[in-house]
Design the sequence.
């Protein structure tokens, strides 16, 4: 199986063959790995060099490599080509998501409102700090997904804005 | 946790309280007795004075230590504890009240002959009043909650155009967090360092200062790294800050542990900021440098004992640096993160102290402050303390959610910080780093192989295509183990 792997801003092609050998960018790698904690932490020896790799978070995939944090990703070839085929998001439409978990204190707009770029749309309270969500462009509020008083999770959809002339 | 530890050493029984969200918390398990005080929402538990007093009575407590958050600077709580016939471990309610009202504290400092930044002498009446005063003081200004603290309810305002929004947000935060939306203005001192002086005062007129901490490394006006001695403070300035802090404490009739905060500008001139009428999160830095147990001293002072040493007995040795590890995504503007601790490794070894309530399986929610643990390093000098801090942070693993650890790793090795050249603008100008940390080829390979395994593990939880099954088994069991 061949994987397209990213570590930080580096891209590598990793091939795992059934006899247990690895190829990275077509060069064979003598690596010995033990899973220290199931699905979470590995000890990796490569030509005598000892590394400890811990999976910090899954989505996004973040690894701790010998005390250094890095983002990573691995897609098998099929998934990678599928991902390349997916089109870009529809232009002119903005989905605003909660940047962090918190309490939605105030909603400053209603569905159908046309707002200027930079206008406050909502006030989110997290850790006792109030944060205003601002309109990224002039546009019409086509959907309010949540109301005041709602407890929202990080990444939860809050507002959909369609750019207006 | 910190308070329980001191109690244990002094042979005092410790009674903990907890909200529904904290039933599993470490402080509950390590206390001698523990009592529930209501739901997760602080207003219905940790801020509910009546419930706390009731527990203290029922458990036949002698004294109440308010910790560092929640009610630790609430004068009504201190009064309620006293009125219930219990000892409050901290300054009396009226002292807290006079210092907690920031414009009053500023007047008190000025009258004690301590420099104070230009600002409003009284709380502002309204936005119009704020506009006029800001004009008089001159932008940039700081808009601050008169009853505030902990970095909440304050905004830097660069021009009149920003004042409206700053007023709305800061006063909203202030009324939510402190139940008091009164605001005041202060001249913003640019490129200032946040330097604070630790004091101890007994009930017999004895007041000592123990040394300063530089807490300039902040985001959203909340501290991330603290150290002592402050790189910008020489012996002479230290004496002057100590003397100023003691004068303010004397003028306020202060008792117990407290911190007097100052801003020190690029030329070494200082101005009084505020007094924190409690033990602070960063107190271990001072403990490591002085060898004192501040919580134990708090308890002894509260019991009516005089300070067991004089100013000339205070010895400071070496340097200490604290990293506050928070549940925040440091890569993306320090937004709060939540999750379950999946794997934890706390650092150890010479000169390293960890104050933490973490354990594997703990669910970190957005209910409370994002502080997870403190890693504090002490060395014979700043160079050794830094080396130990760097080493300790690299040893630390908190998996399962985003944390500030990558930020700490970066700062501890960053040339300006290492040289002691930093001020309160540091985080904005030095984070995130322009170039990501480079892994060498061997480490990169290890990471790449792990990424493949991790992606396999994840897809294994989803329906697996038939053709994947063979490899999955072969790969996991033969090749990869």
Sequence:
């Amino acid at each position: 199986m061949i994987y397209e792997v990213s570590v930080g801003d580096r891209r590598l092609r990793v091939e795992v063959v059934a006899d247990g050998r690895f190829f990275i960018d077509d060069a064979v790698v003598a690596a010995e790995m033990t899973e220290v904690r199931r699905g979470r932490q590995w000890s990796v020896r490569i030509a005598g060099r000892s590394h400890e790799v811990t999976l910090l978070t899954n989505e996004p995939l973040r690894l701790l490599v010998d005390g250094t944090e890095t983002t990573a990703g691995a897609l098998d070839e099929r998934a990678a080509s599928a991902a390349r085929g997916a089109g870009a998001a529809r232009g002119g439409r903005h989905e605003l998501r909660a940047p962090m978990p918190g309490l939605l204190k105030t909603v400053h707009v209603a569905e159908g409102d046309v707002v200027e770029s930079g206008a406050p749309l909502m006030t989110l309270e997290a850790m006792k700090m109030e944060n205003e969500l601002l309109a990224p462009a002039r546009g019409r509020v086509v959907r309010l997904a949540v109301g005041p008083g709602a407890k929202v999770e990080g990444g939860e959809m809050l507002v959909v804005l369609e750019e207006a002339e | 946790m910190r308070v329980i530890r001191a109690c244990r050493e002094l042979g005092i029984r410790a009674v903990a309280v907890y909200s529904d969200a904290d039933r599993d918390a470490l402080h509950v398990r390590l206390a001698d007795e523990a009592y529930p005080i209501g739901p997760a929402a602080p207003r219905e538990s940790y801020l509910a004075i009546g419930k706390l007093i009731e527990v203290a009575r029922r458990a036949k407590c002698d004294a109440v230590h308010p910790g560092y958050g929640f009610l630790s600077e609430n004068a009504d709580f201190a009064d309620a504890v006293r009125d219930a016939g219990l000892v409050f471990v901290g300054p009396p309610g009226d002292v807290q009240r006079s210092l907690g009202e920031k414009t009053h504290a500023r007047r008190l400092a000025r009258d004690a002959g301590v420099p104070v930044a230009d600002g409003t002498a009284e709380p502002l009446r309204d936005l119009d009043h704020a506009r006029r005063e800001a004009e008089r003081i001159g932008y940039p200004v700081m808009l601050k909650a008169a009853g505030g603290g902990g970095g909440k309810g304050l905004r830097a305002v660069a021009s009149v155009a920003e004042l409206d929004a700053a007023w709305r947000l800061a006063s909203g935060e202030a009324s939510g967090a402190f139940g008091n939306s009164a605001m005041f203005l202060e001249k913003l001192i640019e490129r200032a360092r946040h330097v604070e002086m630790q004091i101890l005062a007994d009930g017999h007129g004895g007041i000592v200062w123990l040394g300063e901490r530089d807490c300039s490394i902040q985001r959203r006006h909340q501290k991330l790294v603290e150290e002592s001695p402050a790189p910008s403070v020489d012996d002479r300035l230290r004496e002057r800050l100590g003397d100023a802090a003691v004068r303010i404490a004397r003028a306020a009739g202060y008792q117990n542990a407290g911190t007097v905060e100052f801003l020190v500008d690029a030329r070494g001139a200082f101005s009084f900021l505020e007094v924190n009428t409690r033990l602070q999160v960063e107190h271990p830095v001072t403990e490591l440098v002085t060898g004192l147990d501040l919580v134990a001293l708090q308890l002894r002072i509260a019991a009516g004992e005089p300070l067991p040493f004089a100013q000339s007995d205070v010895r400071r040795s070496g340097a200490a640096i604290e990293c506050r590890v928070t549940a925040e995504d440091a890569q993306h503007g320090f937004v709060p993160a939540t999750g379950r601790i999946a794997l934890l490794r706390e650092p150890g070894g010479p000169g390293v102290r960890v104050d933490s309530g973490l354990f594997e399986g703990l669910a970190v929610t957005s209910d409370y402050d994002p502080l997870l643990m403190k890693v504090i390093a002490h060395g014979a000098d700043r160079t050794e303390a830094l080396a130990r801090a760097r080493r300790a942070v690299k040893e630390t693993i908190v998996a399962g959610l985003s944390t500030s650890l990558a930020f700490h790793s970066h700062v501890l090795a960053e040339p300006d910080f290492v040289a002691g050249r930093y001020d309160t603008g540091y985080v904005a100008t030095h984070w995130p780093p322009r170039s990501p940390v480079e892994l060498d080829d061997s480490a990169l390979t290890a990471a790449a192989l792990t990424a493949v395994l991790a992606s396999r593990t994840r897809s294994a939880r989803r329906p697996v295509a038939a053709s994947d099954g063979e490899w999955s088994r072969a790969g996991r069991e033969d090749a990869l183990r």
In short: Helices of chain A lie at 77-85. The longest helix of chain A spans residues 77-85. Confidence is low (pLDDT under 50) at residues 86-90 of chain A.
